[in-house]
Amino acid sequence: MTKKPTYKIGTLGSHSALQILKGAQDEGFQSVAICEEGRVKPYESFRVADQIITVKDFSEIVDLDNQLAAENVIMIPHGSILNALELEKIGELKAPYFGNKNILAWEVDRTKQREWLANAGLTLPRIYETPESIDGPVIIKFFGAGGGKGYFLAHTPAEFERKIKAHPKKKYIIQEYIVGAPIYIHYFYSPLTNELEVMGFDKRYESNVDSIGRIAAKDQMDLGIETSYNITGNMPLVVRESLLPCIFEMGEDVIKASKAVDGRGLFGPFCLETVITPDLEFFAFEISARIVAGTNPFINGSPYTDLRYSEPMSTGRRIAREVKLAMESDQMDKVLG
Ligand code: AMP
């Protein structure tokens, strides 16, 4: 009998790495953190990394690739890898990778993303093709997983032209601004059982938009404050229970539609970013096709994973569990991309 390879689980030291590494350890894997110089402390202090590899910059992961591949380190993608490497480079990595690399192209390109979500039958905010057509509140968003940095609001073409000057040459979209309650839905889809799980929900804590309400409207005007959406943290949420059937349905429709854009489709963790209007209609404005940092409040499990598992089950741990189940049943090809 040939000996089965033993795998380690690794990720870049940022974003949701604490959770991923802890989850790997909880499932019996050796965990590997790749950290940038000067940013090692949390991974040492919280005891989540069995091995730490230090680099000057995350883009050097390309040079580590052979080593990671030789040591069977399964890389778990998160937002920081999308920031550090071009898609093409991620595609070329030889180290084992959890998830479907082909789906990344659909996440990174907002136009493709929209096509995918529209195919899934979700309700999306309107997109304005040109600045001249702006006729109501809009949010201007830049491409890539930049954490909402620099996004701005406008409601007329002139306001747009004035504000876009601060962002020369950036690729953007102009999206209808939906007034409602933002809810980020964390899912996990298992390619082994073809089952979709709801892992939890969060809302974001963004600077400065989440503190503007602490200042009187008059002061806001006097100070000439521009709203921005730079993410600083995440807060756990539970949703009104009657929304759950729709939440499951949306997730399942997204998975179905992903199989139409790329045969293997999306699997593993993903997140739908939504706003719910006062009529309780969901508008989906974005999808993240991998673990999101909004799962970080649930390192010890969420109220929802508590219902399903009799042990603390973070999304990071759920990834490691999926790898373990795939190893045990000789189906690694189903979880690696
Ligand atoms: P994103 O980077 O797409 O997650 O957006 C950053 C933040 O902007 C979100 O957390 C929301 O608060 C807000 N946002 C994004 N798109 C919309 C929209 N179409 N309508 C209302 N708020 C939005």
Task: Describe the overall structure.
By secondary structure, this protein is α+β, with helices and mostly antiparallel strands. Among the domains are: 1-97, Rossmann fold (3-Layer(aba) Sandwich); 127-178 and 208-232, ATP-grasp fold, A domain (Dna Ligase, domain 1, 2-Layer Sandwich), CATH 3.30.1490. The chain is 34% helix and 25% strand. The protein is built from 14 helices and 13 strands. Helix 6 crosses helix 7. The protein is globular. Residues 125, 139, 141, 148, 151, 175-178, 182, 204, 206, 229, 273, 275, 285-286 line the site of adenosine monophosphate.
Task: Give the secondary structure arrangement, pairings included.
Blueprint lengths: L7 E5 L4 H10 L3 E7 L4 H5 L5 E5 L5 H10 L2 E3 L3 H6 L2 H6 L8 H8 L1 H10 L7 E2 L9 E5 L9 E3 L2 H8 L7 E5 L4 E10 L4 E14 H4 L4 H7 L5 E9 L6 H18 L6 E9 L5 E7 L14 H6 L6 H14 L3 H4 L2
Parallel strand pairs: 1-2, 1-4, 2-3
Antiparallel strand pairs: 5-8, 6-7, 6-8, 9-10, 9-12, 10-11, 12-13
Helix pairs in contact: 1-13, 6-7
The structure holds adenosine monophosphate.
